[in-house]
Structures are given as C-alpha cells and as structure tokens.
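Practice problem: predict the structure.
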Amino acid sequence: MLNRFICSLISCFVLLGFSLKAQSIGQTKRTTLNYVGYNFEMQEPAWNFSKPSDGQELILTWNEFVSLPGFYEGIALDVLQGYVGEQLVIDYVFMHHLCNEGLYDYDCTGWVVSGIHSLGTPKSDRKITLPKIGKIVDPDGYVNVRSQMNVKSSVVGKLEPDFIEEECFYFYPCTDPNWMRIDLSYNNIDLKGYIHKSRIKIIH
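Answer:
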C-alpha cells in the first residue's frame, strides 16, 4: 500500500511538472521517452519510462489512461513489453478524466496519454471529443439508459452505481441539451444510449 502511494505521488509530481507548462483543457502535447518496462511493484497497471536527456524515471499508471471509445491510438498496452529499450513517442491531452483507487471512479484533472507510437510516427490531426464528468442524482439509485433521446423510447440498460453519491461517469453532450449520451462498459455490460440530464449532476 505504501509503495502504491509513493508511486502515485511520483506520478502526480511528474504530471504537475507537465501541467506547469500548460493547463488548458483539450490542449495536446508530445514527448519522447525511453520505455523501461512494466512496473511489477504496483498493485494497479503501471509502466516505467525514462527521459532520454538525463535518464530520469517516469511512471505512467493506469490513471494516466482513460477507457473511452476511440480515444487511445497507437501501440496496444498489452504488447508494449516488446518495445523495452526503445524510444517511444507519447501523445498527451490535458483533460478532466476519471481516476480509480479501488472502490469507485472519481474526477481528476491532468495530462492523459492519448497514444503511444514508434519513433518517427507523425502526429495525428484527429479531433478528440472530450466527455463531461458527472454523477447520478436519481433518488431510486439508478437511471434508465434509453435507445433514443425520448422518455418513451426503449430502455437498453440501467446505470446503477454502487456508490451513488460519489461515483462518477463519462457523459457526452447531445444535439438535444436535455439529454446526455453514454458509451461505456460497466459491471461487465456495454451500455450505449441516452440519459435524461435531470438525472445527472455534471461536475466538469
């Protein structure tokens, strides 16, 4: 537990160093790092990198990545081990995102990895749609996810937070301002659909 806290603290200082240069939501940047290898000491997934200039070690934890459809591109994390010792290009975006320390997801703000690439890969010009972060405020303890932006449309699932007052989720604005769209995997179920905005408290 202490090792996990220390590594998380190191990551925070690394991200703080980045954020001193830029703190605009949606801003992107790119850096080159040496990939050292997977970090086996932390309880959550983490990857060790170092700066080519001075060898300073950097740890990217699972909280520096987000699970959003179409957000991450480049080298898949499960095959990253094949690149040990190589210089890799890391793309970042500064955003509100979800972090997790075990019990539930909560909101954070910082640099998030949007892609890891081989050296020489040109920077992508794709536009990243950043989600909103919110909490469920329905007194029933869950909300219906509907197939369309209409209360009469079919219910495709339910979003049932275990910690309804604390747990946060990603939401996307819709053409109809009274609705928010979700596209996530939750409790081993893929939920794609719409939730009425009256059932959501947007934090960021």
